[in-house]
Amino acid sequence: MSRGGYRHRRWAAAAPAARVAPVVARAARVAAVAGLAAIVTAGCALWPTRSAPEPVVVGVDLDLSGRGPGVAYDNALRLAVEQVNERALAGPGRRIELQVLDNRGDAALSTQNLARLAADPRVVAAVTAGCDACVIETAASLTLPVIALTGEEAVAAPAAQRRWVFRLGPNAVDDADALAAAMADDGVTTVAVLASADAYGRDGARWFAAAAARNDLTVTTTVEVPAPADEAAVSASVLDRRRRTSTTDTDGPDAVLLWLPAPRAIAIAQALRAAGYRGRYYADMVAADELATPDWLAGTRLVATPTAVAAERIAASPAAAARQEWVLAYVSRYGGYHLHSTWAADALLVLADAIDRAGRPDRAEVRDYLESTRIDGITGPIRFTAEQHSGLAGGLVVLTATGDRWQ
């Protein structure tokens, strides 16, 4: 074989390998890239993808007309939902969203709103305020957990007939006890009761009468105050009744209890001052809206929850620190603090806690877990049981209007 021919065969044998090697290398690189893409697409544990949080819809039915605490409730819910979601309080991978409906203070519209929310399968629970009668009327047919922001006892009682309804708001019996005890400590002996002409006002008048008897207080008169009210006529009834029962004092009873919502309470108190009343005012927590008070209310005493003064006191516990944080965050967001806001914030905290413990946003399971609620809310300790659907468990304080605020 010639040397040339040998060389030719060597080249011919070697040429395919030399030419194939780069192709193999390129194929390997392509395969590697394709494999990596498949791994990333499949969500391999080496590079886990972050899935979008599961939306959990909470319906809201409020009077946003500005005539009551509805706007404060709405503000509180919007702030609270941010805090709940930031801290994943409804459970990992869940995000609460609000579906807010305005009932404009109209009972028929509130009833429609509740029906609309109940018919929406995305809605897991609801928060409502502004129409207690609507909740009571629909309670038997509800299949949606509802937290009503109200002081009316019948909204959530008896629990056996209100299985899906829970209540957050002032408890008339506890407020009455605290106010009667404060009056006795202050040396009051006679008191006139001015109560709103609604179920909560009647509850308050009834419980206060019992508390007054236990504290040796004499109720000189009890007046149901409608909305709107004739302030001059109400003032006259308080002062005239005192004049008929006393021969020594014509300036009225030692104290007047204002068991009225904030707008009416202020108007009645002003009318009484204008008519010459110089005694002391005591007020249920519904009578005050903001922390600020006018000078002429100086000395007035108000039953409230500790959150009302949380920003001014040293936080001695995690619960107190949370209340202080809430007040400061609310003031920073809205420029002032509304005393009623805590009820709405707690409604969202209670629902988030029940959803988290249930493990999934199922209406029936959330309802069941609501009945074992035990949390330190922003308002105070909140406890629900199968027999008791009204949540606030004590923790009241009696404040005094000093300077320009409650202290």
In short:
With 407 residues, the chain is α/β, with parallel strands linked by helices. The chain folds into three domains: 1-49; 54-170 and 320-325 and 336-383, Response regulator (Rossmann fold, 3-Layer(aba) Sandwich), CATH 3.40.50; 172-283, Response regulator (Rossmann fold, 3-Layer(aba) Sandwich), CATH 3.40.50. It contains eleven helices and 14 strands.
Structural class per helix/strand content? alpha/beta
CATH class of the largest domain: Alpha Beta
Gyration radius over CA: 32 Å
Number of strands: 14
The percent of residues in helical segments reads: 40-55%
Cα(first) to Cα(last) distance is 116 Å
Main sheet attributes: strand count, strand direction, barrel closure: 7 strands, mixed
Question: CATH superfamily name of the largest domain?
Answer: Response regulator
Shape: globular
Mean pLDDT: 84
